Structure to design on (1117 residues):
């Protein structure tokens, strides 16, 4: 074996303690890196599965492609899988259900059935164009006693109702528009289907208030070249789908017409799945997920680089003389560097595999432990989170850890190779040339701390490199601890805010265009299972206040925000003012009474349609571009009036609309409190009005389908009992099923999510703290051991054991305080940085710091420093003075 | 044959007022096989000269030719290779690698050079140095005299052009000192090894072929004791 390797191995063997600490550092750091990646990849995998389960396995969809051109898309080289489907449209089916008289039939080809979120309950999938797959809800609600084998006579046709084009556009498709009063149906052709299977309700089924979805087989033979089909694709590279999809469309000879948002209107993207595949997409969740991942990795790499660097720097510092000896007998710089790098290599070879195994075991156990929680959290993940071990993850970990070690060893290696033999022989390297040391410390120090205190301070000042190394290692530990706690605090705050924002347990969609809606809403209020209920109906109007009415902070914010492409952002109009959208809402008589009482108002005053009064909520809190905005929109006091006009186009209000005022509201009260069922809005002022006023003025209010068709928000002590009671009521009055959304379930899963995040965080925090503590102990211990000779010398001239202890105590104090002095501000600055990252992506909350953690950090640092110094000091206290002085190599 | 030629060598430390000339325009020649003692008070520049000759320190100006090669013109790597092939250095404090055993310490220059070991030569040196039963020991298991013998072995193993010794007996009692000097003389005679020894010890100096006296960075006197 090469002498350098022999030497390195011998050194590692003889310095077991140091080697063990270094290897421990490498194990910790590679385990942490690997653990983060494993968790990240497992989480990504479960989210991809979840999104596929919810919305299907496709990346982009080309809508209404003439069948003749379909092959240009399916045969495109960028397309991996192409799935064809055809919207056959609405059909009547001889229903007894008055709310849902239609079938919305879509034809799927075999690949669509495979990749779209279709889950068979009984029977089989359709295999030809005459077979039909229907939803379980239809079996229950159609009243036709359907089962696999039944035949169904359907008549395709077109629905006719008032404002057809605008409503279809507003709802995003005919199938999403509720049955309208006075609606008629124009039949076109009839067809007989055989029901062959029953499927679970589709995810978008609850958004189809007038129709049941049904699927048949896509039969190309029955298609004409001009028939329109939809093509969903899986791209070879989903990451660049927003670039490739329009190109594919162009290559196929399709016109790519940009929609209102600038995106092609005939291409839609799977916005929930793509972000998890690394594709473009605006997902705050993915954003914060990545943020946490990146910050975690950065913190780990920082912490471990420092730990490993320190271990190497110390071991090299100790052997400076040895390297000088090597150099003087003719070792080249390259050979000396090789000693250090071999050492790094050996440590890496032991530490990294152990770290990876540890991470796999650790994450495996964590996932096993959280299996129950995860399967409750995500409906389809009954197995919990899968432990996904990609070779890539192992590779990346090895790469990261090896880079960490190389980075850590490189500087000490260079320093070692630069050791000039003469320096080593003279042992003069400790003192930097040309920098005379300040011979005296402040007299104040001696008076306050005594001679030992002065000695302590001098010994810190004397060897700057050792001092800085120790200080840096303390600082990094402080910074890591504080920053990580801040990350935890902000994550938890965000999650808590998300769950607190919902003060209701159930949401029931009720379209107010349906005549039974209001009666039903009134009946719900009388159910004993329901504590509080709001039937929220909103209309949107255009409000252009004079400049003077807009508050200065609001005006300033609007000017700043106008560069951003925010939805529902007020638009500037002539005259230096803005055009706002005013949301006028009724919340149902019982909630209105409740709300008025809460604000100390008399509900009676609000029920006069000829002098309409409203409660104005116009406070806005939002964070944009790293800045917190917190202001009232308007200078409106009770008694002021708001003149509104009809919105010309609900989807894109135009600038400077000259529409005459259609209605004038009087502000009855201004508040920041929301009634039940409101999540808070940003730049849309709310006017809460009584139902009497809303209904009487509905001709002036409800000219256009709003984005919210009306929904009932229910607070209940027992949501399950409430759902059962509501179901009975609905079936007894309206008939059939109703769709509801339980926020109680969501709140539960929010709590579980928080629990899991905390589990992850605390595990992580433990390891980060361990890295920090190992680092501090290692550095300080060496710091003392390296000074054995100096201390022996001090003792030989009469330093008492008591004086020695005092000196160590002061040193600990100086180290601890200086490290805190520099470390805390940096940690806090990083926390601020993370806070702004959060504010951009997730939500708005006031700035705060993890004070408990900071206090724990201050106490912890002082305690650890103190304890380590004392223990190390005790170890050398009994050194024989003469032997130590004689000792040549320390 | 001239094995060492030093031309106008100077070494200056510091700048301006604090400038110290450790060596001031020193020139000398040494013949192959010569045993030279350099004497002088502390701070006279003798150790500086030795370190420059050994290629572990660099001169401020001037030339050092070892076996015809100008070592002041070598880069760090070439200088290191020069050291392990042409120079044997012996220090007052032995400077052995504490975790390598006696054999490894002695053969270190060879091993660094990745040359195969001349077993015969190693055996002979070890026998000469009386270390045969100490080959597996670590330096801290040896007495001072034994450690110094190991460092002499390390200096001789490569059959270098120059063996340079800096106060080789400075840390030893008189019995051990005598033994070490005897060994150095033996190597000088047996292997015709050129030997330059820096010493305070007049008795040691008197055993050399030639004594060079240093003072204030100059050669004050250069006398042949025996031919």
């Amino acid at each position: 074996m090469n002498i350098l390797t022999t030497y390195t191995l011998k050194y590692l063997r003889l310095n077991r303690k140091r080697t063990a600490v270094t290897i421990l550092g490498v194990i910790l750091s590679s385990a942490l890196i690997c653990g983060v990646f494993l968790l990240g990849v497992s989480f990504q995998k479960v989210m991809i599965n979840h999104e596929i389960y919810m919305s299907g396995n496709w990346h982009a969809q080309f809508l209404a492609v003439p069948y003749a051109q379909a092959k240009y898309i399916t045969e495109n080289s960028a397309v991996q899988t192409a799935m064809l489907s055809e919207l056959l449209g609405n059909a009547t089916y001889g229903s007894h259900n008055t709310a849902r008289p239609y079938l919305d039939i879509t034809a799927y080809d075999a690949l669509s059935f495979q990749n779209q979120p279709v889950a068979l309950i009984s029977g089989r999938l359709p295999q030809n164009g005459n077979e039909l797959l229907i939803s379980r809800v239809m079996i229950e609600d159609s009243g036709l006693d359907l089962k696999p084998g039944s035949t169904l006579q359907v008549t395709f046709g077109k629905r006719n109702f008032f404002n057809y084009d605008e409503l279809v556009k507003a709802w995003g498709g005919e199938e999403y528009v509720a049955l309208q009063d006075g609606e008629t149906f124009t039949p076109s052709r009839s067809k007989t289907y055989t029901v062959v299977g029953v499927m679970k309700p589709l995810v978008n089924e609850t958004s189809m208030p007038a129709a049941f979805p049904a699927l048949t087989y896509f039969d190309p033979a029955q298609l004409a070249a001009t028939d329109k089909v939809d093509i969903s694709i899986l791209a070879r590279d989903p990451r660049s789908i927003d670039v490739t999809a329009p190109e594919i469309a162009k290559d196929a000879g399709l016109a790519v017409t940009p929609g209102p948002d600038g995106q092609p209107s005939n291409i839609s993207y799977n916005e929930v799945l793509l972000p998890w595949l690394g594709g473009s997409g605006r997902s705050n969740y993915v954003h914060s997920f990545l943020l946490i991942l990146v910050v975690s990795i950065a913190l780990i790499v920082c912490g471990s680089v420092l730990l490993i660097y320190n271990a190497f720097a110390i071991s090299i510092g100790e052997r400076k003389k040895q390297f000088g000896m090597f150099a003087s007998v003719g070792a080249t710089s390259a050979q000396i560097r090789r000693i250090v790098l071999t050492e790094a290599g050996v440590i890496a070879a032991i530490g990294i595999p152990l770290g990876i195994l540890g991470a796999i075991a650790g994450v495996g156990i964590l996932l096993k432990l959280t299996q129950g929680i995860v399967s409750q959290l995500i409906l389809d993940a009954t197995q919990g989170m899968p432990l996904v071990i990609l070779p890539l993850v192992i590779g990346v970990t090895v790469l990261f850890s090896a880079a960490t070690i190389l980075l850590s060893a490189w500087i000490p290696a260079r320093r070692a190779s630069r050791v000039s033999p003469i320096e080593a022989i003279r042992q003069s390297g400790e003192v930097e040339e040309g920098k005379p040391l300040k011979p005296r410390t402040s007299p104040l120090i001696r008076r306050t701390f005594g001679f030992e205190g002065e000695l302590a301070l001098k010994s810190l000042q004397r060897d700057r490199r050792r001092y800085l190394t120790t200080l840096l290692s303390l600082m990094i530990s402080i910074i890591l601890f504080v920053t990580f706690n801040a990350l935890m605090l902000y994550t938890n705050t965000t999650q808590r805010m998300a769950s607190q924002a919902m003060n209701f347990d159930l949401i029931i969609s009720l379209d107010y265009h349906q005549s039974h809606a209001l009666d039903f809403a009134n009946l719900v209020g009388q159910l004993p299972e329901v504590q509080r209920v709001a039937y929220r109906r909103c209309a949107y109007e255009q409000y252009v206040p004079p400049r003077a009415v807009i508050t200065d902070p609001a005006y300033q914010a609007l000017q700043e925000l106008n560069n951003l492409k925010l939805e529902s952002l007020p638009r500037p109009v002539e005259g230096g003012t803005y055009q706002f959208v005013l949301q006028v809402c009724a919340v149902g008589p019982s909630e209105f009474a409740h709300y008025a009482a809460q604000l100390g108002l008399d509900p009676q005053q609000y029920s006069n349609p000829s002098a309409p009064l409203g409660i104005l909520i116009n406070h806005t809190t939002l964070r944009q571009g790293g800045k917190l905005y917190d202001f009232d929109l308007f200078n409106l006091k009770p008694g002021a009036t708001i003149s509104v006009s009809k919105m010309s186009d609900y989807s894109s209000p135009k600038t400077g609309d000259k529409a005459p005022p259609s209605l004038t509201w009087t502000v009855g009260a201004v508040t920041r409190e929301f009634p039940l069922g409101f999540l808070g809005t940003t730049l849309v002022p709310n006017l809460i009005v009584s139902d009497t006023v809303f209904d009487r003025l509905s001709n002036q209010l409800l000219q256009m389908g709003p984005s919210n068709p009306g929904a009932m928000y229910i607070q209940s002590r027992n949501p399950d009992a409430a759902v059962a009671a509501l179901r009975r009521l609905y079936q007894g009055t309206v008939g059939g099923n109703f769709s509801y959304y339980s926020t109680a379930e969501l709140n539960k899963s929010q709590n579980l999510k928080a629990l899991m995040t905390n589990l992850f965080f605390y595990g992580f925090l433990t390891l980060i703290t361990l890295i920090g503590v190992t680092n501090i102990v290692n550095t300080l211990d060496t710091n003392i051991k390296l000074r054995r000779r100096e201390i022996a010398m001090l003792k030989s001239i009469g330093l008492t054991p008591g004086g020695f202890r005092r000196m160590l105590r002061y040193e600990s104090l100086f180290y601890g305080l200086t490290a805190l002095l520099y470390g805390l501000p940096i940690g806090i600055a990083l926390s601020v940085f993370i806070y702004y990252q959060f504010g951009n992506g997730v939500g708005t909350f006031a700035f705060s710091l993890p004070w408990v953690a900071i206090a724990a950090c201050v106490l912890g640092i002082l305690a650890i420093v103190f304890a380590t110094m004392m223990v190390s000091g005790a170890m050398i206290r009994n050194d024989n003075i003469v032997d130590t002085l004689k000792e040549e190599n320390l | 044959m001239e094995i060492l030629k030093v031309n106008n060598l100077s070494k200056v430390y510091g700048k301006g007022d604090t400038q110290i000339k450790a060596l001031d325009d020193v020139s000398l020649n040494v013949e192959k096989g010569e045993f030279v003692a350099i004497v002088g008070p502390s701070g006279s520049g003798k150790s500086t000269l030795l370190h420059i000759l050994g290629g572990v320190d660099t001169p401020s100006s001037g030339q050092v030719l070892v076996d015809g090669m100008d070592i002041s013109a070598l880069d760090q790597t070439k200088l290191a290779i020069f050291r392990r092939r042409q120079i044997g250095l012996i220090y007052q404090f032995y400077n052995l690698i504490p975790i390598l055993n006696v054999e490894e310490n002695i053969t270190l220059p060879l091993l660094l050079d990745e040359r195969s070991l001349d077993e015969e030569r190693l055996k002979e040196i070890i026998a000469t140095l009386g270390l045969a039963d100490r080959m597996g020991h670590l330096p801290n298991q040896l007495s001072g005299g034994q450690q110094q013998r190991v460092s002499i072995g390390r200096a001789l193993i490569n059959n270098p052009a120059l063996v340079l010794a800096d106060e080789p007996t400075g840390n030893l009692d008189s019995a051990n000192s005598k033994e070490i000097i005897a060994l150095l003389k033996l190597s000088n005679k047996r292997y015709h090894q050129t030997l330059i020894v820096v010493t305070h010890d007049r008795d040691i100096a008197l055993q050399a072929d030639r004594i060079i006296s240093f003072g204030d960075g100059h050669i004050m006197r250069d006398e042949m004791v025996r031919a």
